[in-house]
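In the design runs reported in the main text, the only information available to the sequence generator was the tokenized backbone. The following block is the verbatim input for one such run; it is reproduced so that readers can re-run the procedure and compare outputs position by position.
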């Protein structure tokens, strides 16, 4: 459908930004899966790269496509990371990420990268962060009940992410995810992010602020780059 076509356009353009010899971070989610498929095609045609994945799922897909995978024991710096996002705020290019469950490794990989290229379909563009998605916050399972209460006491409506069989969702890092509803008026993303990071029991959150180098938006008629 139109959204899949838009995602694919964005993913192909993003993968084309990879140059021979680069060390690349591979994102997580459905758009990043399309990026990884395109990278696999380019590797089969002779592109020489080393890559680090932001989730076990992306690692598995990349290995299946014979993309040369490495790790941070061998690569301390990545030239470029390509990832998706749940929301991209117009103007600031601040992101909400994490509904794919991979925010912790995604943020670690993004922080180790010279550039972060985000590939999205147009639905992801928002004026106000949190207007479509809640903010995923990764928390330690031990005492999560007390951490959720602390988040609620900060004023965030907070719900533990559950799997279909009624158990808490568990991340690659063996943590839980809490979905926090962001205030839609007067929310300061920088202060709010710091407040979340300073909350005991919180490992990391899905606000990616001041980290985005470029956003490529797939559209039916082509692509737009912010
Ligand atoms: O979790 C994330 O941040 C991922 O990038 C993911 O949410 C993006 O989703 P999509 O590419 O499947 O729409």
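Verbatim output:
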């Amino acid at each position: 459908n139109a959204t899949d076509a838009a995602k694919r356009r964005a993913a192909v353009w993003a993968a084309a930004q990879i140059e021979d010899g680069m060390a690349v971070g591979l994102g997580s989610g459905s758009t990043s899966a399309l990026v990884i498929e395109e990278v696999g095609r380019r590797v089969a045609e002779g592109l020489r790269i080393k890559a680090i994945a932001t989730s076990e799922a992306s690692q598995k897909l990349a290995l299946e496509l014979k993309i040369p995978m490495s790790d941070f024991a061998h690569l301390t710096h990545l030239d470029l990371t390509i990832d998706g996002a749940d929301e991209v705020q117009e103007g600031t290019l601040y992101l909400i990420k994490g509904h794919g469950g991979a925010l912790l490794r995604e943020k670690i990989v993004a922080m180790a990268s010279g550039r972060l290229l985000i590939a999205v379909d147009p639905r992801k563009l928002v004026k106000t962060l949190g207007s479509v998605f809640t903010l995923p916050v990764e928390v330690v399972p031990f005492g999560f009940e007390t951490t959720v209460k602390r988040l609620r006491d900060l004023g965030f409506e907070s719900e533990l992410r559950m799997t279909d069989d009624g158990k808490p969702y568990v991340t690659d890092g063996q943590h839980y995810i809490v979905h926090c509803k962001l205030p839609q008026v007067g929310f300061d993303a920088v202060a709010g992010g710091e407040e979340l990071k300073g909350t005991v029991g919180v490992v990391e959150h899905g606000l990616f602020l001041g980290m985005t180098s470029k956003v490529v938006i797939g559209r039916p008629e082509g692509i737009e780059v912010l």
